[in-house]
Amino acid sequence: MPDATQQRPFCMPMWQRVVTAPAFWSLIVLVVLLMLLEGAVRADLVSSAVVASPSAALLGIVDLQQKVDILGALRSTLSTTLVAVALELIVAVPLGHLMYKRRAFSIAYTGWFAALSAAPIFLLYPLFLVIFGRNLVTLIVMGFLPGVIPLILHVQEGFLGVKQTYINVGESFALSRRAIFWRIMVPAAAPTIATGVRLALMYTLINIVAVEYLVDVGGLGRIVADRYFHFDIPGTYSAIIAVAAVSVFLNWLIGRGEHWIRSR
Amino acid sequence: MRVGKLREGALHVQVLWIRVVTIIACILAWEFAARSGLFYEGVVPPIWNVSVALVRELVSPDFYVDLGLTMFAATVGFAVGSLIALVIGIALGLAPFARRVFEPFITAIGGTPKVIFLPIIFLVFGLGIESKIAKAGLSAFFPVVLSTTSAFVQIPKILLLTGRSFNLSSWQMASKVYLPAMANSVLTSLRLAMSMSIIGVLTAEIANPQGGLGFRLMRYADLFKIDFVYADAILIFALAALINAFLSALQRARSAHGRKQAADRAAAKSALAASSGI
Questions:
Q1: How many CB pairs under 8 A join A and B?
Q2: CATH H superfamily, domain B45-273
Q3: What is the pLDDT of residue B273?
Q4: CB–CB of B160/B177 below 8 Å?
Q5: What is the CATH number of domain A77-217?
């Protein structure tokens, strides 16, 4: 459907361009909603024991650093996520390549992997808690398992999508198999693999935060659980806003990274 | 032609062998882990113990009570969340400016771990089944709303113009034009949303153990009845797979050619971007 807002003329004055921009209205909607909520909480229409006023929740983010070391938590979650994703790449790239090279393996495993990706893998966390203990290894394994499956499927899909013409051109230049793989196949499959990495990062992060929350161990997820168990309502909301903001920023960053790879 | 058929036959045999060998290797690895003493005693129980626990769970009436609680919360949450998502998705599809205003919020929250919203859900809905339904609804909402909006945008313009030229009412446009045109994409997202709802309910049951399969699994873990933890995890995986297979079959039966269109793929991708029920 054509979108009139996408065809704004350049001659439009600056203020008019700002006012007609959807991002401006997104901000207005957010501010209005927060003000309405603030008013409702202050007027006791909504109990402050259930919903924290937005001002208290936003100001509380500053206190979070002193109360629970939010930067340390962020560092912990990010490092755990990155280790898990690195392991996913180590496993998924050769496995995805094998499934691309051997059609029988592809047919045998693709259906299984697709079914596994819809399974509630996080339910296995009590088992890993017992096997590895209440530590970062459990978090890494719980991040690794849901992330590795989409990555394997995307690596396979990426290699399958490489046009035979590219490989023929490489062969006509008498390139070795290794050179064809690194100079032709990997760059051609990179956009699809980048999508897989984005999904893997997202699933890994979500699962790690979820386990941190449920087990009360480690980084960002633990902060929310900690404030909630202290019945610090504004603190709980501050923690949720902080975690959501970090998550949104990371997703945006990952999306930009994928876009950058796709545009090259 | 015959050579091709022979090759296909050989490929099927090869696939069968790979699957059988993989299953046998997994069973042997499991049994080795169970009997090797590498792990703390009982952490990896022998397959026989897990099978016995599985049968005992299947004949236990309590299991069905918990299964009923989980499925009730997941189904009601899925129905409410998906319905709201469908309405909002169509509304956003109809109003491009509103879509560009609200989509950043939906995409942002969709990619956030929903588990962090559990404290708010518990505070607002209490600790009863309502909070589990709300969590299921939240998990189901995002894949459906994103995929509906994406599918709506890709409805061929000719269909919309034809509907308008027949002077159809809003309801008729929705039931005769929008929904049939988006059916495949929406069904894909509904299939995902159902899985997400079950995962959402299980998360809520684990965070606040008061009945349901998540509670049952956690109770066995706390009692160190690990064979029952494996048994329940297997049963939950099987349940999720069964529901997924049922909805896939429903979708295939509905699809005229059984082929994915570009719009369906785009909508599925949108749904996938928000497809974490946790």
A1: 156
A2: MetI-like (1.10.3720.10)
A3: 55
A4: yes
A5: 1.10.3720.10
